Backbone:
């Protein structure tokens, strides 16, 4: 059984930083691309960032480029999202997900990912 468990969310002031972690089990973690999505109240789940199985390729939503950084440690079966210069509009529940393939899916939609964590709340105050 595949499990993804996020941690590291919390309340932070605008301009601050957080580091999210996602620990994976039950699957050969290093064989799949991974992604982060976020969902604000009343809105759809949106793509944030993704990383290939080796970590050599990354992709970001335009709204987070230069502020958020995705990385992975295959020895620890963990993917990270370093969040800097946070803004109130970054407030959302953040989800990590495992892709169905080794490379970053071309379509930045939830359907390209088959396993999901339970989410972690990030709240940025102004």
Residues:
């Amino acid at each position: 059984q595949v499990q993804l468990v996020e941690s590291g969310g919390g309340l932070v002031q605008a301009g601050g930083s957080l580091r999210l972690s996602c620990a994976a089990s039950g699957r050969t973690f290093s064989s799949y691309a991974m992604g982060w999505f976020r969902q604000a109240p009343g809105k759809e789940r949106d793509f944030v960032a993704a990383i290939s199985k080796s970590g050599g390729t990354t992709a970001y939503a335009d709204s987070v480029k230069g502020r958020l950084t995705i990385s992975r440690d295959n020895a620890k079966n963990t993917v990270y999202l370093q969040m800097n210069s946070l803004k109130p509009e970054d407030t959302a529940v953040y989800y990590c997900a495992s892709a169905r393939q080794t490379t970053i899916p071309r379509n930045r939609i939830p359907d390209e990912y088959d396993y999901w964590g339970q989410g972690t709340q990030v709240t940025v105050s102004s």
